[in-house]
């Protein structure tokens, strides 16, 4: 709950490009407090502080948003409070809900970890992120390609990251999934949500777990950004199993909220923007596994139909 509802609501009156950059100090205090709580839950000792982005990074963020389809940017003005920068977020980005004293939603805010973005281009950033659940292996490695040569830029990395975060932004209060900020209370039956039953079930203790046939060995040990729980030699079996599920990426398999965010991001990225998302597992430099084109595969059909309806205004 915010202590500054008027200040947050005023952000909704500004054009989206003007909601990027340094936030007023009172807003940063609330954002930093939220991130500190998340880091404490994940065991991350880092202390988050606000960051002032250089002009070229601000320009890249605006270019990343400006290059998104109208069907995406057209949904942002009434729900996105801003995109801000910080050090030591514990991940590349984080999205938070902002509510007033009555518990009513004002909007959502996205924070970007400036240190994760300053120097990495699209493919290097994607490879770094997707490798993080695995301990380093001298023989087995992962390569991820989300951009062809002309688009392998920092803008490309920021755009994909923001598409994921905007997926979180657009789930707030929509009924696609249970409201994450009210979990585990107030959860209804799985069938009461439009996206959740595509791959997830709600159990008696309100835990959200993969439906029968969607789980696979090692999925419960996938941890992004924190301490790796999987051996590097597990890359091949994990990715081979992932391709038998309805999850577009390994990140999507971690929870229902990141499943939606990754499904949204990869659909916009691959289908609407016609850009690649491909992971390769290599052993001693030789390719052992290449992911399929998820959105062209039969396993994507229910999620593809969902995204086509959601983004129909395109």
Overview of the molecule:
The protein is of the alpha+beta class and 314 residues long. The protein has 2 domains: 1-118, no CATH class; 119-314, no CATH class. Helices cover 34% and strands 16% of the residues. It is built from 10 helices and 10 strands. Strands 1, 2, 3, 4 and 5 form a 5-stranded mixed β-sheet that branches. A 3-stranded antiparallel β-sheet has the order 6-9-10. Helix 3 crosses helix 7 (154-171), helix 6 (122-131) crosses helix 7 and helix 7 crosses helix 9 (256-272). The protein is globular and about 55 Å long.
Highlighted features:
314 residues; alpha+beta; 10 helices; 10 strands; globular
> Average pLDDT value?
91
How large is the radius of gyration? 19 Å
What is the domain tally?
2
Helix content: 25-40%
Which H/E pattern describes the elements? HEHEHHEEEHHEHEEHHEEH
Structural class: alpha+beta
Q: How many helices does DSSP assign? A: 10
**Main sheet, how many strands, which sense, barrel?**
5 strands, mixed
Poorly predicted parts? none
Distance N terminus to C terminus?
Answer: 34 Å
In what range is the share of β-strand residues? 15-25%
Number of strands: 10
The coarse silhouette is: globular
